[in-house]
Amino acid sequence: KNQVEQSPQSLIILEGKNCTLQCNYTVSPFSNLRWYKQDTGRGPVSLTIMTFSENTKSNGRYTATLDADTKQSSLHITASQLSDSASYICVVSSGGSYIPTFGRGTSLIVHP
Amino acid sequence: DVKVTQSSRYLVKRTGEKVFLECVQDMDHENMFWYRQDPGLGLRLIYFSYDVKMKEKGDIPEGYSVSREKKERFSLILESASTNQTSMYLCASSLDGRREQYFGPGTRLTVT
C-alpha cells in the first residue's frame, strides 16, 4: 500500500531560525512529489514539485530536496518568518493513478 | 487565476439533517475530489470524480454520497448527518492524477 510518512508531527522555532521537515514515501511507481503549505483555516497551496530527475528545487526561502533512491524528501525553510506558521503536507503522485497519497503534515509554529 | 469555491465557510447542522456541500471550479479540470481533514489524521479522501457523472469511492465513503452533473460542479451529500461527521471538508480539482491539486477554502461543518 502506498504510504507517506512525515516528521516531525509538530515543530516550534524562533523567528529567523532555519528548520527542516522530512518526508518518507513508499509510493510506486513514483511520478512526482509536492510540498503543500496550508495556512490555518485555508486550503493547501502547492509550494514545490519534484520529479524523479530533480534533486533540489527552491522557491524563495523554501528549498525542497529529493532522494529517489532512499525515497526521502525534505523541505528546508531558511530565516523563518511568522507567516511560515502553517501545516506543511507532503504529497506523492503515482504514475497511472488518479489519486495522490498525502502525508499527515507537519505543523510548524514560528514564535517572535 | 485558478479558482475553487465552496458554498459555505461555516455550517452548523443538527443530527439527522441532510447536508449539501457544493464545490465549483473554473479551470475546466477533469478530476474533482472531496476530503475531510481532522487533527492528527491529515486529509482523507471521501470520493473523487474523473469525469461528469463518474464517481469513485475514496478511503472513507461511508455516510456520504456525491453528485457531478456538470464538469465544473461536484457536490458532497451527507444523507443523515451525525456528530462524527463534524470536520473540515475540502474540495479540490486537478487536470490529472499527477498534476497539482487546487483546493477550495474549506467548509467547517459542525453537527450537533
Please provide a written account of the structure.
The complex is a heterodimer of chains A (112) and B (112). Chain A contains no helices and 11 strands. With 112 residues, chain A is mostly beta strands. In chain A, the strands form 2 sheets. In chain A, strands 2, 4, 5, 9, 10 and 11 form a 6-stranded mixed β-sheet that branches. A 5-stranded antiparallel β-sheet of chain A has the order 1-3-8-7-6, with no helix packed on it. In chain A, a hairpin with a 4-residue loop joins strand 7 and strand 8. Chain A is globular and about 45 Å long. Chain A starts with a strand and ends with a strand. Chain B is mainly β and 112 residues long. Chain B has no helices and 11 strands. In chain B, 35% of the residues are buried. Chains A and B meet through strand 4, strand 5 and strand 9 of A and strand 5 of B.
SSE order and pairing:
The complex is a heterodimer of chains A (112) and B (112).
Chain A: E1 4-7, E2 10-14, E3 19-25, E4 30-38, E5 45-51, E6 56-59, E7 62-67, E8 72-77, E9 86-94, E10 101-102, E11 106-111
Parallel strand pairs in A: 2-11
Antiparallel strand pairs in A: 1-3, 3-8, 4-5, 4-9, 6-7, 7-8, 9-10, 9-11
Chain B: E1 4-6, E2 10-13, E3 19-25, E4 31-38, E5 42-51, E6 54-57, E7 64-70, E8 73-78, E9 87-94, E10 102-103, E11 107-111
Parallel strand pairs in B: 2-11
Antiparallel strand pairs in B: 1-3, 3-8, 4-5, 4-9, 5-6, 7-8, 9-10, 9-11
Mean of the pLDDT scores of chain A?
94
Quote the distance from N terminus to C terminus of chain B.
37 Å
User: What is the H-and-E element order of chain A?
Assistant: EEEEEEEEEEE
How are helices and strands ordered from N to C of chain B? EEEEEEEEEEE
Largest sheet of chain B: 7 strands, mixed
Detail the poorly predicted runs of chain A.
Answer: none
**What is the alpha-carbon Rg of chain A in Å?**
13 Å
Shape of chain B: globular
Using DSSP, what is the number of strands of chain A? 11
Give me the Rg of chain B, rounded.
13 Å
How helix-rich are the residues of chain A, as a percent range?
under 10%
Helix content of chain B: under 10%
The total beta strand count of chain B reads 11
Strand content of chain A: over 45%
